Amino acid sequence: MDPLSERLHGKFDIEEFVSKYRYTLTLILLGTLLIGIGILFVKGIFNQKNNIEILENSSQLSTEIQEVVVEIVGAVEKPGVYKLSAGSRVEDLLIAGGGISADADRGWMEKMVNRAAKLSDVRCRCQ
Question: Which of 95, 97, 110, 113 is surrounded by the most beta carbons within 10 Å?
Fold first, then answer.
């Protein structure tokens, strides 16, 4: 049997194919690899930069912030966005929101909400 008829009948020799076309297969593989790296580079995966600003003095930050803006939602009398002075606590926010409503889950509040925690620009959800 000649090689063409062997191939037509399902006898394909992979070793012979790779040996015969090794340079072509190597170039195709290398080209595919280079194209993939080029796409990743263009999309910015390899050249992502972290923009981090380092403050020389941490007291600079505290003197600049005069107030915090916080939102409280859930089981409070007056949910909404409030501006409070820097250094305010969660308890101050609850007071500003009119206090905990009658249908609040007080057991959950005692376990999950730290009323003494200092506020930052966050969203507080009371249940």
Answer: 97
Measured between alpha carbons, how far is 100 from 93 in angstroms, rounded to an integer? 11
User: Residue 112: its pLDDT value, please?
Assistant: 83
More confident call, 19 vs 7? 19
Total residue length of the chain: 127
How is residue 69 written in tokens? 């803006």
Compute the distance between CA of residue 56 and CA of residue 58 in angstroms, rounded to an integer. Answer: 7
Here the tokens at position 36 are 């993939």
What order of strands is seen across the sheet that includes strand 67-74? 80-85, 67-74, 123-126
Q: CA 115 to CA 97: how far, in whole Å? A: 13
- Written as six digits, the tokens of 116 are 């003494």
Tell me if 34 is assigned to some domain. yes
